[in-house]
Amino acid sequence: MKICIVGAGAIGGYIAAEMAMAGHDVCAIARGQHLTAIRQNGLTLIVDGQARIARFPASDNPMDFGPQDYVICALKAHQAAEYAPKMRPLIGPHTAIVTAMNGVPWWYFHRSGGAFEGRPLRSVDPQGHQWNMFGPERAIGCVVDPACEVVSPGVIVHHEFKRFILGEPDNSVSERVRCIGEIFEKSGFEAPVRKAIRRHVWLKLWGNVCFNPISALTHVTLDQISTVAGLRSLCADMMSEARAVAHGLDIDIPVQMIERRLDAAGLAKGHKMSMLQDLERGRSMEIDALVTAVAELGDVVGVATPTIDIVLDLVRARGRQAGLYPA
Question: Which of 86, 186, 204, 272 is catalytic?
Fold first, then answer.
């Protein structure tokens, strides 16, 4: 199987390195100094303090690789929407696209059933590039659990977790999802295939919708967000609103999980959320897939999200002030 990782940053580079070292036919799209380092020295992956070097073809031009069996898109959601036209050389008649990114996926209402079937989401695919160019039938869902970091060009440190949850939008267990799951597993990852992939999307999004924007606004770590009384209360309100939106989409999240999730976050001593890391490093902020999309879905199902809306306005303003979110 030919596999291209689009976006060989922290997560994409981690996937590419482990798959390459397991002997799979992998190539990667990267850019800048990171690409130069991978080409010259391979990609150094540090896991549990042990460094290994993976070598695989890398380019900033998808035309160098041609059609693939699987494209694993590990870009941030807004980057994927912008980059989609450039991905076309990677797409053949039977190419599947694995959306290994945070937040609400662009294919969310494909084969979802019900009144919203086929509805596009402006917040994550504003020009419709992904839906219209590729077709949602190519999409395989992927919820990313690992925490990784590019510490210097060509060097990635894996901090924790190795699970990628995979699932078809129509809740089937197809041959193609079983196949990519086996490739992940043989590369040393945990890759359970789940029928209800949207529920797993929501379980991760539930924390991201509050923890990430609050971290960017306050510059405090996850344990502080979940233990400082006012911030914890704000998180609980946002999670309650997100839970109501999910319920409107037939996703059930038990209300008692709010306190459990906040308690668990309090154990992550010193952990900086990705949105805060992006703000500090001058990288574009992933606001829309994590927060705007929840507000949009609230509008779709007729559920008010007043607290989420206020925090969204604040974090957008912060991102614009830093030049890291569109005006």
Answer: 204
